[in-house]
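Saturday, quiet lab. Running sequence design on the structure tokens for the scaffold JK sent over.
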């Protein structure tokens, strides 16, 4: 009788151990499956709606050189270089505020130092601020120490002054070579932003010409170049905005525009513009052309002299 009870006890014990082992394995399987699900969720391709989120885009998109955004949406980015200017930039900000348009300002560190309140106003009113170097040299011609000053010190003063993180840089004159491009993209983790519509406003052609060139060159995804240090440019902006809106365009910051980029979208021949530099998004950067002829880069000091 005792022997039979012992056998029964060990049989029941064995069954219990098998049941517990099965439950443990099931729990482990569930945990593994959960981990795999989370990993898949983390690395999945973002949906179309999520791809328009600025913060998500900055985390997922590799740093690169851009002169346009490949999108079919009628959206453009207004960009302004060389400010802030003590008189003209506030006038421009008033125009943009009244038109409910946000833009991107590529500022000089020296001017942020001179006009910190204007730099703070740029950010406070919803615009994007980015680096255009400290003193506007051609970055391909400066020493390593000067290069670091132009990039690092400008980033630092923008971030200290405005509280907005700097994620983009536009090199003066659009001047790039392999060394400069590699340093900006890899060492400083900055997107390099060029342009594909240039009204040549630094030549002071008059506000009507500036408006005509910006509007005629605009296309979905265009990055429009202008300078908020020239009175004629500021005078051209109200008509430029009005005419672009009449053609069905809306406006975005550069970061928002890049978040709309559709890499598989091919540009149509209709998107070619007469005044735009011929620049590849991720390839080599040939000299700008005007009417089929190469034109010099803007290296003269007079072209970027601050207008009083």
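Result came back. Writing it out in full:
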């Amino acid at each position: 009788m005792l022997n039979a009870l012992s056998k029964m006890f060990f049989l029941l014990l064995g069954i219990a151990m098998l049941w517990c082992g099965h439950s443990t394995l099931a729990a482990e399987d569930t945990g593994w499956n959960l981990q795999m699900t989370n990993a898949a969720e983390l690395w999945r391709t973002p949906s179309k709606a999520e791809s328009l989120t600025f913060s998500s885009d900055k985390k997922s998109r590799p740093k690169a050189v851009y002169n346009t955004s490949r999108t079919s949406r009628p959206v453009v980015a207004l960009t302004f270089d060389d400010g802030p200017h003590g008189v003209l930039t506030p006038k421009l900000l008033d125009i943009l505020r009244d038109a409910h348009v946000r833009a991107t300002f590529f500022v000089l560190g020296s001017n942020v130092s001179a006009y910190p309140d204007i730099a703070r106003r740029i950010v406070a009113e919803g615009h994007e601020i980015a680096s255009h170097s400290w003193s506007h040299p051609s970055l391909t011609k400066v020493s390593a120490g000067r290069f670091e000053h132009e990039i690092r010190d400008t980033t630092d003063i923008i971030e200290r002054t405005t509280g907005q993180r700097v994620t983009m840089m536009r090199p003066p004159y659009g001047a790039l070579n392999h060394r400069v491009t590699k340093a900006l993209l890899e060492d400083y983790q900055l997107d390099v932003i060029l342009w594909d519509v240039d009204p040549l406003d630094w030549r002071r052609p008059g506000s009507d010409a500036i408006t005509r060139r910006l509007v005629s060159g605009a296309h979905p995804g265009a990055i429009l170049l202008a300078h908020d240090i020239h009175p004629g440019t500021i005078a051209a902006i109200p008509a430029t905005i009005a005419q672009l809106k009449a053609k069905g365009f809306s406006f975005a910051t550069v970061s928002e525009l890049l978040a709309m980029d559709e890499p598989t979208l091919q540009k149509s021949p209709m998107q070619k513009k007469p005044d735009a530099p011929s620049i590849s998004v991720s390839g080599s950067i040939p000299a700008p052309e005007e009417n089929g002829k190469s034109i010099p880069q803007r290296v003269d000091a007079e072209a970027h002299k601050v207008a009083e």
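Notes for JK: Residues 20-58, 267-308 have pLDDT under 50 and may be disordered. The chain has one domain: 53-280. Ask whether to fix the surface positions before the next round.
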